[in-house]
Design goal:
Layout lengths: L2 E6 L6 H6 L2 E4 L2 E4 L2 E4 L6 H9 L6 E3 L3 H11 L5 E6 L7 H11 L4 E6 L4 H16 L4 H12 L3 E5 L4 H5 L5 H10 L2 E7 L2 E8 L2 H16 L5 E7 L3 H14 L3 E7 L2 H7 L4 E7 L4
Helix pairs in contact: 3-4, 5-6
Keywords: Lipid-binding
Organism: Rossellomorea marisflavi
Pfam family, one: DegV
Length: about 280
């Protein structure tokens, strides 16, 4: 059984890696000043933050049309028996539901929509593991089962410089945004039951990142093989410095640096920083 792996642009997996592992990508879009851009296709993360700084209106985002999924799944049906379509949390986007609807509309291929319940490179962990398992000849049901097993170990925490973007985008309540602004805190956020909620309120950026380090330390103390991603919103230098520090502290964890691209960056804002990790299922 030959299984294709599909994801959306919010996994922010570099194109060369997608090409290398035969990963197919459906882009979400960001609308800036009336212009629509497909992220990872028409606009890069750095271009996006530059555009936002010169705009007097916050951008908006949109999910892919169902027809885009249908077209891709039908194309894949010529070469694959099944497709696992892995997407950002259904609690913050309808993208996953679009894959579900498209899967019911196509024939000739088994479609397994998969809700990562998260986003960014942590979503990408599922995609990369799925692609490696598929290349080993594992069937779709087995891959989904292993991804479910990995889900038990997935964690991600992120800090925003300003709660305004999350509040205005409807991803965080007004009350939480007001409280955060009044206290001048650097809130740590995470996903619970597919939505973004506060984890802890911390007074400084440095202390917030240190708290995330401690949480990683607790998670990897079981001696398992872990992968972790430092994720930034246009703060690459800071992210690289943090990664170097983390590699010294946790030599048994495989680290990379990724980013909050246009769609997720719209809701978090420039300057956000986070880290996510998961137990590795493949070498």
């Amino acid at each position: 059984m030959k299984t294709a792996i599909v994801t959306d642009s919010t996994a922010y997996i570099p194109k060369e890696l997608r090409d290398q592992l035969d990963i197919y990508m459906i882009p979400l879009s960001v609308i800036i000043g009336g212009e629509t851009y497909q992220e990872e296709v028409d606009i890069t993360a750095s271009q996006f933050f530059e555009e936002v700084r010169s705009s007097d209106r916050l951008p908006t985002t949109s999910q892919p049309p169902v027809g885009q999924f249908v077209e891709l799944f039908e194309k894949l049906s010529h070469d694959y028996d099944a497709v696992i379509s892995i997407h950002l949390s259904s609690g913050i986007s309808g993208t996953y539901q679009g894959a579900v609807q498209a899967g019911e509309m196509v024939s000739g291929i088994e479609v397994y929509p998969y809700d990562s319940e998260i986003s960014c490179m942590v979503q990408g962990f599922y995609v990369l593991e799925g692609a490696k398992l598929s290349s080993e000849g594992r069937d779709a049901k087995e891959i989904v089962s292993l991804l479910d097993e990995m889900k038990e170990t997935v964690r991600a925490y992120f800090m925003v410089d300003n709660l305004t973007h999350l509040q205005r985008g409807g991803r965080l309540s007004n009350a939480q945004a007001i409280i955060g602004s009044l206290l001048q805190v650097k809130p740590l956020l995470h996903f619970v039951d597919k939505v973004i909620v506060p984890f802890e309120k911390i007074r400084t950026r440095k202390k917030a990142l240190k708290r995330v380090e401690n949480l990683l330390g607790e998670a990897v103390s079981d001696g398992g093989r872990y992968q972790a991603s430092v994720i930034h919103a246009n703060r690459e230098e800071e992210a690289l410095e943090w990664k170097a520090q983390l590699e010294e502290q946790f030599p048994n964890v495989e680290f990379n640096v990724s980013y909050f691209g246009p769609v997720i960056g719209t809701h978090l804002g420039e300057g956000s920083m986070g880290m996510g990790w998961a137990r590795k299922m493949t070498e």
